[in-house]
Each structure stands twice: as structure tokens, then as C-alpha cells.
Amino acid sequence: MTGTVISMADKPPAVGHVVAGLYLRSLRQGLGISGTMAARLIRASAAKISRMETGRSPLRQQDVRKLLLHYNVGHRATLDAMHKLIETPESQRHHTSDLGPGWAERLRVCEQEATPTRIYTNCVIPRGLRTPRYHSHVQRSQHSDADTIEKYQIPANRDDQAATLIMDESVLHRTVASRPVMAEQLRYLYSAVRSRELRVRIVLMESGVLGPAGITTELSLDGMNPFLVAESYYVSYFNGSIGENLSRGLDALEAAAASPSDSAALIGRALTNFSAEGSA
Prior knowledge:
alpha/beta; elongated; 280 residues; 7-stranded mixed beta sheet; 11 helices; 7 strands
């Protein structure tokens, strides 16, 4: 994990405020509105807007509503979803689920505004690494919304260091699409590994080490502890002690995984198998 830990009265910001703040920043910047201009709307300083947009300053419902309306987000359901992210009880300060309208866009923003450091999957290839045909099959099987994909790219670290994909070996052999589509997907993944755009560590099935169900992404935001996103049939965000426990789980999975070179060889072997079967 990377980044310098900051002190906020000895506890990190509420993770729902981090998600909502990053979404607000993305909207503001997309419209070309300066922090100073946004600050005038809520009678605050540009510095406070900056802190709000990373969750360092608590978000107030009335301020968020004013900003969203100014950013042309007036859909009642979306406003309610943002309200739920902000108004989480203290017991859920470091764990919140985002189920409301716009959840996919807020997830996309988090993955763009923060830096993915590690991604773990034991089900399917993560979105940012899928070929279009593979992704279409996954979406159909999961009954996902059609507009939540095709916007993602290989998650490159902002320090020019590749993110690490920790993947259960079973993913390489799970046929979620036709064999030619599987071969195409594995070829793309193998190419990303060979070109060093991505580091991959395969957790062998024989290791007996199991990770959380679904896809878990560890995200690093400048000057803050990493926070984590868990995707299954909905999206949950974690930081604080819960996030630290999840990160330690990723540490254990990475420690048990095959070496980068052996992992690349496993992907190559799976690619060869699907390619041979597809041409048969």
C-alpha cells in the first residue's frame, strides 16, 4: 500500500463522504467550475471545497444539495442516494453500500480520481481489463445495467507503476463465454502482463487460501489511507479498521500467490488451452 497517513482526530473520514466528495469534484471539474466559484455557493473557502471533495471536511446535506443542483444534478433519486451516503450513522462510518441511482457513475469516478493499487477477483476478470465481448457475456449473466461499462481502461498507477491484479486460479478456467471469446480475453490479459501495464499474481487453487467473494479493489487517494471497494451484486466501500482488515487479507492472498513470472505462465497456459479448443 502507498500514501502517507494523515491524522483526522485519529480517525479517517467517513468513507461515504469520500465517495460523495470525489463525485462532487468530478462534476465540478467536468463543468469547468473553479473551487472558488463553488465555494461562493455555500459561503465557504476554496480550501474547504478541496477538503470536502476528498472527505477531509464533513459534508453537510444542504451544501451538497446546493452544489449538485448547480452542477445540473436535480434528479430526486440521485439526490436521495447522495443523502444516504452522507448521512450514515457513526456505526457505519467506515462501511457503506451504494445502491441508489448513479452508483455506477460514482464507482467510475472513484476509480478515476483515486489510484487502484491492488485488485482481487475470484469470479470474473475485472471490468477495466475486459474485452468488449467478454464483458457483454458477463453483463448478461449478471443482469447488469448496460451503461456501466465500456468506460474503463487498464488501471495504471499514477506513479507509473502498474496496479497488481490478484486473481484466483479458477478465474482462468471459468468459461463465462465461448472459447474464442475466452481466448481473446486471455490474450488481452497476457499482453497487458507482458507489456508490464499490469502485474498479476495468481492464487493457486491448491493453496487453500480464499479471498472475499466478488471483486475487491484497493484505492489510494493522495495523503490518505487506502479505501476499498467490494463489488458483487452491489457496491460497498470500506476504510478505517474494516478497510485495514481487508487490506491485510489482500496481503495474505498476495503472499500465497504464485510469482509474477509463474503467474504469467499460468495465463499463457490457459490461453493456449482455450485457443486450441476454440480451433478444434
